[in-house]
């Protein structure tokens, strides 16, 4: 099985004025192709910092990170932008849709700049949003906006999908629908999906659960029998 992302001794230190905050303190990880990985950890443990570095949105202070063997830690800004654009789809807790573009236009914009995009209208229809495609974000519910955000990430047809608390702002049923979509992208399309969350129940869907504690990998659990989104409850 090919390793899609590898990190070696990853450190990230932020400075609040003079005061250093050691968000990551030596993270070693391998993420395999086609895996559904859930990263669990308490608030402030470094999960978002890690995801941002894995997605090329931020650089480590120290350590190495490889995407399919290619070092990201040595990349210039332009190359990193291409990596983000072509290889990675992001889903955030608070959708980050462009307010003055319709649902369709939000998805199409992402697809336009991708190398091998999927059809925006088809993806929106698969998300159950065919009849909402001409709505602006402010005319959609939170769950619908999150589904547009997922459609936008998936329409790029990325190699890796990185999700930061994707269900954090959603009600229970909508959250489960969103998880189902993420799992389909993983299982049907064979893509690598990483989800960071506080919600331990979501870990039951994962092939592997990586626990982050105080800027380090605390433990890794392999799930012999990952369940479907429908079987998860919290
Ligand atoms: N830009 C920044 N400047 C300074 N400190 C930061 C910055 N970003 C994160 N931190 C600090 O780094 C640590 C890890 O933050 P991070 O957001 O990665 O944690 P998290 O596990 O994702 O938390 P949460 O679950 O609450 O989102 C925290 O102490 C946080 O305050």
Automatic annotation (TrEMBL):
InterPro entries: AAA+_ATPase, ABC_transporter-like_ATP-bd, ABC_transporter-like_CS, MacB-like_ATP-bd, P-loop_NTPase. The keyword Transport applies. SUPFAM superfamilies: P-loop containing nucleoside triphosphate hydrolases. The keyword Nucleotide-binding applies. Residues 5-232 form the ABC transporter domain. GO terms for molecular function: ATP binding; ATP hydrolysis activity; transmembrane transporter activity. This is ABC transporter related protein. SMART domains: AAA. It comes from Thermincola potens (strain JR). GO terms for cellular component: membrane protein complex. CDD domains: ABC_MJ0796_LolCDE_FtsE (cd03255). Belongs to the ABC transporter superfamily. Keywords: ATP-binding, Nucleotide-binding, Transport. It holds the Pfam family ABC_tran. The lineage of its organism: Bacteria, Bacillati, Bacillota, Clostridia, Eubacteriales.
